């Protein structure tokens, strides 16, 4: 099989912006235009047998890119001999809550404005047949530092295409446990099948957070948090934090946090709620205001946020590590000393370091999108691109093993609601605890 044609890379490498579960994010500067992008860089060694993960993210982004100004756009994707690259909008305006805390004042109408914009984008995503599955403040970024900058929904690494339209979605429910625990809906933990309603639940949590500075299900342990989420156990307390929030806003939060996903409103429904749809803003008047204006929420919001730092504490996710461990042949046997999981994490760290060393301007690239067959089926990285003829037999065996591994993956991920895994809630929380411990180690 002839090697794909390679061309000089049209980008040069900028600074490293951050590090995710299995990728690093760097600035990429387009050589001809000088325009800056955020580029997710993934080591190809790490993706061997897991190409579907990147293929899925590309498929999702190709459906929705450039269709809504508040959804991050995938501008380009390509591979070098060593890495895969996905180029996105570079959002330089900071994260949602950092912007709020930097303001001089913050009113309920400001929160409603933000929620309305984000829900409009969520409605667009859902109309394209996509469920995001990891909506949280950290994934809501501002395009620029300007006061009127667009807020953007980012990070579609856990998103999925929900085929079959509204009427057929129940036959394509997802059963994978994933997301950020404090924002995950009850049905995710219960593994009864989930879909677009999980994004509405997450938006309910985000709305609560925007009004108070902390999340509704915060508990002393992840187990207690999960139990609270499943039971829908939350209150609008302490009173001093919620006395300045209107009953209309609380009603909206309750609606989004409907335990039964079949009774939970859709994103489109939420946009019709009077808290978002009314021409007149809802608020509690400030008793010290001579004109009866709204009460400033910022003092209490900042106090709660700074005291607990909840969203930073909860910034870990049950992410690709679970799926990678399955593909590595270890299943979810984290209780057996976690040796294989630790080995995988060590490999991830090594491969990410290798990825960071490559300079794009010195590399030749293959543009994968040139051979795409359609918007929902982008070409996957070609495992045979750099395989010599003398290794063809080994490559064939490898591909056969990859197919077997993918079939194994399907038993644990994104299958119909009828595929009930034998992994109970205790094991689900064990996986959460593993990620929690790993996050704490990185912080120290």
Automatic annotation (TrEMBL):
List where Basic and acidic residues composition bias occurs. 350-372, 398-414, 428-444
Reading the lineage from the top rank, the first entry is Eukaryota
**Ranges of Low complexity compositional bias?**
373-384
Show where the Protein kinase domain sits.
11-276
What would be an example GO MF term here? protein serine/threonine kinase activity
> Could you say which residues bind ATP here?
40
- Which key words are in the record? ATP-binding, Kinase, Nucleotide-binding, Serine/threonine-protein kinase, Transferase
Q: Which SMART domains match?
A: S_TKc (SM00220)
* Compositional bias of kind Polar residues: 385-394
State the residue spans of region: Disordered. 350-444
**Assigned protein family:** Belongs to the protein kinase superfamily.
Query: What is this protein identified as?
Result: Protein kinase domain-containing protein
**What is the protein's species of origin?**
Collybiopsis luxurians FD-317 M1
């Amino acid at each position: 099989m002839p090697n794909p044609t390679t061309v000089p890379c049209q980008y040069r490498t900028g600074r490293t912006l951050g590090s995710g579960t299995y990728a690093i994010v760097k600035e990429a500067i387009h050589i001809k235009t000088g325009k800056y992008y955020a580029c997710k860089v993934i080591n190809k060694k790490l993706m061997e047998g897991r190409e579907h993960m990147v293929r899925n993210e590309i498929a999702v982004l190709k459906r929705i890119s450039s269709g809504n100004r508040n959804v991050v756009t995938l501008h380009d994707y390509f591979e070098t001999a060593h890495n895969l690259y996905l180029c996105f909008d570079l959002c330089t305006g900071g994260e949602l809550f950092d912007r709020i805390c930097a303001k001089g004042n913050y009113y309920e109408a400001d929160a409603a404005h933000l929620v309305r914009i984000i829900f409009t984008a969520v409605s667009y995503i859902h109309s394209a047949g996509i469920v995001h599955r990891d909506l949280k403040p950290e994934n809501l970024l501002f395009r620029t530092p300007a006061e009127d900058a667009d807020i953007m929904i980012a990070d579609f690494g856990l998103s999925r295409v929900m085929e079959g339209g509204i009427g057929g979605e129940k036959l394509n429910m997802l059963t994978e446990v994933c997301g950020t625990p404090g924002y995950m809906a009850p049905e995710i933990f219960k593994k009864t099948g989930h879909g677009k309603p999980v994004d509405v639940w997450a938006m309910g949590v985000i709305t609560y957070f925007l009004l108070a500075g902390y999340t509704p299900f915060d508990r002393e342990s992840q187990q207690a948090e999960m139990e609270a989420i499943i039971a829908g156990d939350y209150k609008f307390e302490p009173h001093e934090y919620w006395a300045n929030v209107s009953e209309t806003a609380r009603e909206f939060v309750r609606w989004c946090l409907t335990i039964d996903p079949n009774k939970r409103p859709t994103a489109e429904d939420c946009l019709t709620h009077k808290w978002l749809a009314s021409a007149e803003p809802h608020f509690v008047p400030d008793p010290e205001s001579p004109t009866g204006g709204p009460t400033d929420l910022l003092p209490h919001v900042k106090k709660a946020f700074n005291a607990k730092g909840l969203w930073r504490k909860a910034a870990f996710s049950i992410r690709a590590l679970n799926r990678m461990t399955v593909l590595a042949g270890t299943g979810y046997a984290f209780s057996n000393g976690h040796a294989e999981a630790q080995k995988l994490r060590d490999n991830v760290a090594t491969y990410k370091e290798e990825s960071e060393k490559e300079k794009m301007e010195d590399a030749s690239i293959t543009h994968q999108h040139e051979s795409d067959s359609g918007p929902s089926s982008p070409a996957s990285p070609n495992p045979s691109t750099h395989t010599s003829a003398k290794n063809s037999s080994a490559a064939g065996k490898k591909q056969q093993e990859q197919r077997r591994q993918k079939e194994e993956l399907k038993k644990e991920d994104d299958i119909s609601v009828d595929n009930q895994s034998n992994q109970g809630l205790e094991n689900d929380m064990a996986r959460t605890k593993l990620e929690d411990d790993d996050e704490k180690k990185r912080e120290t």
